């Protein structure tokens, strides 16, 4: 049998480095996605204001969704684009969000608020 040529402490230390690196990668990817989605929302809102469209319009988001999906793949449904717009509207300062919130957290909060509003409208 081969005798261990390294200590268990060495493996644990290297394992900790790998684990921490993986966590950092996830955080960085999450922050990059948040900033991207926030900026997409910002661009949509600014275009809406620039063109004096009080309502961006479902047709506009549907058309934009189709174009972006053809070009970049999944993730750009009308509902997602609308959520990105609302994300920007709710958090107009991106620094208040990055590092503290993930896109999943935002969506869970968004849907939770929607359910509360529906309950209030129909069950109170």
UniProtKB/TrEMBL annotation:
InterPro entries found in the cross-reference section: PD-DEXK-like_domain, YhcG_N
Pfam families: DUF1016_N
YhcG N-terminal domain boundaries: 13-108
Name assigned to this protein: Uncharacterized protein DUF1016
Species for this entry: Longibaculum muris
Organism lineage string: Bacteria, Bacillati, Bacillota, Erysipelotrichia, Erysipelotrichales
């Amino acid at each position: 049998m081969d005798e261990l040529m390294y200590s268990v402490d060495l493996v644990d230390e290297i394992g900790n480095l790998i684990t921490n690196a993986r966590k950092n990668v996830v955080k960085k990817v999450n922050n990059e996605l948040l900033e991207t989605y926030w900026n997409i929302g910002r661009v949509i809102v600014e275009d809406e204001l620039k063109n004096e469209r009080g309502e961006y319009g479902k047709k506009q988001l549907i058309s934009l969704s189709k174009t972006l999906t053809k070009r970049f793949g999944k993730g750009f449904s009308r509902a997602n684009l609308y959520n990105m717009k609302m994300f920007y509207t709710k958090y107009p300062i991106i620094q208040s969000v990055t590092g503290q919130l993930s896109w999943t957290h935002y969506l869970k909060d968004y849907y939770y608020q929607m359910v509360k509003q529906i309950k209030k409208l129909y069950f109170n």
